[in-house]
Amino acid sequence: MTVRHFLTLKDLSKEELQTVLERGIELKNMQKSGEIHEPLKNQTLAMIFEKSSTRTRISFETGMTQLGGHALFLSSRDTQLGRGEPLEDSARVISSMVDGIMIRTFEHKIVETMAEYSRVPIINALTDDYHPCQLLADMQTYYEHRGSIAGKTVTWVGDGNNMCQSYINAAELYDFKLRIACPEGYDPNPELVAEHADRVEIFRSTKDAAANADLVVTDVWASMGQEEEQRLREKAFANFQVNAEVMACAKDDALFMHCLPAHRDEEVTADVIDGNQSVVWDEAENRLHAQKALLEFLMAK
Ligand code: CP
Ligand code: NVA
User: Fold this and answer.
1) 11, 71, 77, 130: which has the fewest C-beta neighbours closer than 10 Å?
2) Strands (DSSP E) along 105-214, which ranges?
């Protein structure tokens, strides 16, 4: 059987993504009602972290426990990966012993190389370019609160990097329009934007981008690995904050999401993230349920 990987949302079809979304909701209900469901009994997920994490580690590790399996936390600091063992060799060796590999790293090429040499599914748990697992949770959260996102308008405010680029993929796969507000010099990959020109538009004004939006989403100004650019980015992104004035441009029933961790009064004001339109806590919790559905989809025998 061919091994399926999850490096970007595009590794699953529209139909498969909808199946995973609905299964995430089912698994959530089953877990909340105390039902035991262990399709991954005796299976192990290796979790390689080259960057920090709270939500991703906890959701994958807990998800594997709930599905009857085991998760192995591997930081690059404590494995031979951090001492320069070739990725190809590491992928061959690790995948000869476990049933799935989750990796959070820097260049997207790293997860592609792992996938090329692994005999088990590779799950991208964030690279500099994409964060597809977060989108599974975001799409489930929107669906639970408002129903299908098809035909709706989503506004992305902030950096054009990993989260934004996963939203661009999602625009096609979940069928919504995406209005991106980002400063010049922080645009998403122009080729990716051009591929999706029918549904993705770039704005330099946050309020223009937020007009009539059904969902407003943002992320930190300086991502992991960009800490030394914090000062520079505070200046560049000063007009790209989600605040009450920006939310007032969106529809009255618009939702607000943020993958977290958040910086109140940088990319989002406290009144918005802690306000009535914010669904960030459901969004964070849904990392667990959506990824359980993904793990089951990729790994259940
Ligand atoms: N949103 C997200 O991926 O959070 P962590 O960095 O805490 O895993
Ligand atoms: N863009 C952020 C997302 C964190 C979950 C980062 O890469 O640090």
Assistant:
1) 77
2) 122-124, 153-157, 177-181, 200-203
